[in-house]
Each structure stands twice: as structure tokens, then as C-alpha cells.
Design brief:
Layout (H helix, E strand, L loop, with lengths): L1 H17 L16 H8 L5 E6 L6 H21 L3 E5 L6 H10 L9 E6 L2 E6 L4 E5 L5 E7 L1 H13 L4 E7 L15 H9 L2 E7 L12 E5 L7 H12 L3 E5 L9 H6 L2 E3 L3 E3 L4 E4 L2 E9 L1 E2 L13 E4 L4 E3 L5 E6 L5 E3 L2 H5 L11 E2 L3 E10 L2 E8 L7 H4 L11 H10 L22 H31 L1
Parallel strand pairs: 1-2, 7-8, 7-9, 9-10, 10-22
Antiparallel strand pairs: 1-3, 3-4, 5-6, 11-17, 12-19, 13-14, 14-16, 15-18, 18-21, 19-20, 21-22
Helix pairs in contact: 2-5
Length: 470
């Protein structure tokens, strides 16, 4: 019987070691991989080995980052089902192995806390300093760790193992659009960082100086032009799209981009005016800004299907409608209590109100996705009524208005470049949750543990004693 019991025990452990279920009990699933990472791992065609060269840190914060990274690597390894392997190299204890790997990887040196990803002939180096953000004080002195971005960094690195073609975005210039290198509140440098984390290369293009859209252009980005785009420029964009090109066009309210007739040919109508929504809007310093819309009412499209329950924030937007359902799909709407304000004089004087004779009542569409085939070539375009959503002042975490909501723009670019598999909402941020112990709750816990718990045991004992007496 003892041998049988031991055999059962060994068998149960053998099965449970290979067939098990893991559950993340945190409220925001802080220790679960994002959908984007899971979809990416499925695309791995060859085994991927991640070599870590961590060294004992002097700083407790770096020690915590190393621990978090090791936990994260374990999640990747477990979820991959045998596709991802992790080799932890202790630098001080194995200098010979470090030297051998250095020659194998054809590196002049392996820096402390390096991570080297190898899959077939592909190789990518990542250092631990790329996986976290440092918080700086008011005078620029470094403080503690502000955020851990290990998953974003690793997933971005793994993406290079999956992608066979480089993704290159061309941002148009010459119409007072946002500059991708501009770090001012009106610039796009923070958004450019989001794109570069996904191994997307960014270039700028002045259409007036070009004879055609470059052949290596994965998608053309027209982000908030303030002056009209000329007829020759429109012809370049039109010919590019008809030949299977991709474009993201964001036109702010009150701006004349000169694209209304061009967009009509592609089944899109942009309306003059600005959308006002007293019901679904963002509050600044305790006061609602009725032009800064918050929407989670999405259409049925790959760009927005995985954004259910996630708010998109558009700080000032115009109406963008589909006039050809076969080509253009509506992406998101304002609430039913919103309206399109067309009286700009009243708006400038903060006297905007709904006028049934000139204004349009909501829900109002704020963006569309277009697909058009010509001669077996599929052109794709996304048109949004706002470009401020990706400017530094609205997505930089250090800004007073830093919402950090870029999923709508990122997912649009992923769809345009044919990377729908990577569309997902960014991983949730960690929240601090506390149990508030009021005096009443403390009194209850005291008497519950002192009297009620022993009383329950005593009651069971008395019940058993009475049953046995009978």
C-alpha cells in the first residue's frame, strides 16, 4: 500500500508538472503578457534563445528591475510552449563562456546587463537600461524608477525576428504639420518614440519637392496640416493610394487642408466645424472641456475591435463621415448629446450652443477607415478628425495633460501597414489598491477573530458530539 501511495504521488506530480493552469490574480492582470506579445510569439517560426548577462547591482532599484525582468522572461518562456529559451549567464562566474559567446555573436564587447536575442541568423541586442524610465527631480537630478517597460522592449526586439520587411513611415512636411523630432508641446517626438519601439523607421517628406512617393514607403502620414495641400501634392497622394499605397490623414477642426474634394472621391466627407460633447468630455482642473472628447463607442473594424472598454481621447475634433459604406468604415463616434458646432464666432466667444437650423446633432462620427481596390491593388487610408491626440502635450507622461492614449493612432498604422496581428491595447498600468480599515471594520475584525472563529469550531464540535450521542 505504501508503494502504491508513492506511485500515485509520483504520477500526480509528473502529470501536474506538464499539465497545469496558471492564473493571474491581480486586478489589472499585471503579470500577464499583453495580447500583442502573445500574438507575436505565435508568429515565431524558429526557436528563440534569450541570453542574459546580468551583473550584481549596487542599487536596490536596479536589483528590482533585474528581478522583474527575470519574472517577465519566465512568462515569455512558459507561454511560448517551447519556442523561447532563456540562458542566464553569470558574468563573474563564467568569463570563459562570455568570451566564447562574444566571438559567436561577433560582438566587440558584451556590456553589463546585456540581453542578446538569437533566432536562426537573426540577432538583437537589448540592455537593461532600455527597460525602465528614470524619474527626474525639478532640477534635473535622477530619482527613482518611474516605469518598467520590459515587455514593450522585449516584444519590440522579438518583432525584428518576425518581420521580414522593414516598416518605414513618411511624415509629410511643409504645411506646419507636427515635427517628429520636435520635443515642444506641439511636437510629435513622444509619438515617434512609440513607433520606434515597434522597430518602425521614420522619415520626413516634402511633397512639393518629390516627383513620387518613395517606393519603400510603408505608409504616408499627413498629421494635422495647417495650410492647404496643393493640387500636385494631392495628385501624388492619389496616385500612391491607387497603386496600393497606405495613408493616415488627420485633419484638425478649423484647418483648411485642401483635401475635401480628394477625400470625397475615396468615400469620405469631412465637415467644417468642431464637435462639442457635454456628456463625454475630459475635465481639466475641475472644469469640463466640451471640445476634448472621450469616446469608447467603436465601429466594427480591425483597428478598433480590440479596443472595447478603452477610451480614446480627441482634444478637439471635426466630423468625419463615410459616404460610401462599401469603401469607408466608421471607426468611433461621440455621444448622442453631442453636436457639430458650425458658428465659429460664438465658439470663439465661448457662447457655443446647439442651433437646430445650422448644427448637426450627434452621435457624430470622428474617423473612418477606407479600403479601395483598383487593378488588384488595394489602397488603404485612415482619416481622423484630430491630430492633437498624438502631440507631446497630450501623450507625454510629464505633461499636465498627458493622457498617453495613442492606441487609436497606433492601431491605425498597424492596420495600414498590414500588421493587424500586432493590434492590441497597450499593457495596463499598475494601480495601487488599498483596504481602508475604518474603526468600525477594525472592531469587527477583532471580535470576528477573537470570538466568532473559535465559536464556529466549537459549534461544529458540539454538533458532532450530539450526533454521536444519538
Amino acid at each position: 500500500m505504501v508503494l502504491i501511495a508513492l506511485a500515485i504521488l509520483v504520477g500526480v506530480n509528473y502529470v501536474s508538472n506538464r499539465q497545469f493552469y496558471r492564473y493571474d490574480c491581480t486586478f489589472n492582470k499585471e503579470y500577464s503578457l499583453s495580447d500583442k506579445s502573445k500574438e507575436l510569439i505565435k508568429q515565431l517560426k524558429e526557436p528563440l534563445t534569450i541570453y542574459t548577462f546580468f551583473v550584481p547591482p549596487q542599487d536596490q532599484a536596479i536589483f528590482d528591475i533585474q528581478r522583474m525582468m527575470n519574472d517577465l522572461l519566465e512568462e515569455y518562456q512558459i507561454y511560448s510552449g517551447g519556442k523561447i529559451f532563456v540562458e542566464k549567464i553569470t558574468v563573474a562566474a563564467n568569463p570563459e563562456m562570455v568570451e566564447v559567446l562574444q566571438k559567436k555573436f561577433k560582438l566587440e564587447t558584451i556590456a553589463p546587463n546585456d540581453m542578446i536575442l538569437r533566432s536562426g541568423d537573426n540577432q538583437k541586442n537589448v540592455n537593461l537600461v532600455e527597460t525602465y524610465e528614470v524619474e527626474y527631480g525639478p532640477y534635473g537630478q535622477p530619482g527613482g524608477i518611474k516605469a518598467f517597460r520590459g515587455e514593450e522592449t522585449l516584444t519590440s526586439a522579438i518583432m525584428t525576428m518576425v518581420k521580414t520587411q522593414k516598416t518605414i513611415l513618411y511624415f509629410t512636411a511643409g504645411h506646419n504639420e507636427g515635427e517628429v523630432k520636435n520635443q515642444s508641446p506641439e511636437g510629435l517626438s513622444t509619438f515617434a518614440n512609440y513607433l520606434q519601439r515597434e522597430n518602425i523607421e521614420i522619415k520626413q517628406l516634402n511633397l512639393l519637392e518629390a516627383t513620387e512617393i518613395p517606393r519603400d514607403c510603408s505608409a504616408l502620414i499627413v498629421m494635422g496640416p495647417k495650410t492647404p495641400i496643393s493640387a500636385p501634392e494631392r495628385n501624388l497622394i492619389n496616385n500612391y493610394l491607387k497603386n496600393g499605397g497606405r495613408a493616415l490623414i488627420a485633419i484638425d477642426p478649423l484647418a483648411d487642408a485642401g483635401l475635401a474634394d480628394f477625400l470625397t472621391e475615396w468615400g469620405v466627407r469631412i465637415s467644417d466645424g468642431i464637435v462639442i460633447d457635454p456628456e463625454r468630455c475630459v475635465a481639466f482642473l475641475g472644469r469640463k472641456d466640451v471640445t476634448c472628447l472621450a469616446s469608447d463607442t467603436y465601429g466594427n473594424h480591425p483597428i478598433t475591435n480590440k479596443m472595447r472598454g478603452e477610451m480614446s481621447i480627441l482634444p478637439g475634433t471635426r466630423a468625419v463621415d463615410s459616404i460610401s459604406p462599401t469603401m469607408a468604415t466608421e471607426l468611433l463616434k461621440s455621444s448622442g448629446n453631442s453636436w457639430l458646432e458650425t458658428n465659429m464666432d460664438d465658439f470663439a466667444k465661448n457662447k457655443a450652443s446647439f442651433d437646430k437650423d445650422s448644427d448637426r446633432r450627434g452621435a457624430i462620427n470622428l474617423g473612418v477607415a477606407v479600403t479601395k481596390k483598383e487593378d488588384d491593388k488595394e489602397g488603404r487610408m485612415v482619416v481622423l478628425g484630430d491630430s492633437d491626440m498624438v502631440r507631446n502635450k497630450f501623450i507625454d507622461a510629464n505633461s499636465m495633460m498627458g493622457f498617453g492614449r495613442v492606441d487609436l493612432a497606433l492601431n491605425s498604422i498597424r492596420w495600414l501597414t498590414g500588421q493587424e496581428v500586432f493590434i492590441s491595447v497597450e499593457p495596463k498600468k499598475t494601480e495601487s489598491r488599498r483596504i481602508e480599515l475604518t474603526p468600525g471594520r477594525m472592531t469587527f475584525l477583532f471580535w470576528f477573530s477573537l470570538l466568532m472563529v473559535p465559536a464556529i469550531g466549537a459549534a461544529f464540535g458540539i454538533a458532532v458530539w450530539l450526533i454521536r450521542r444519538r
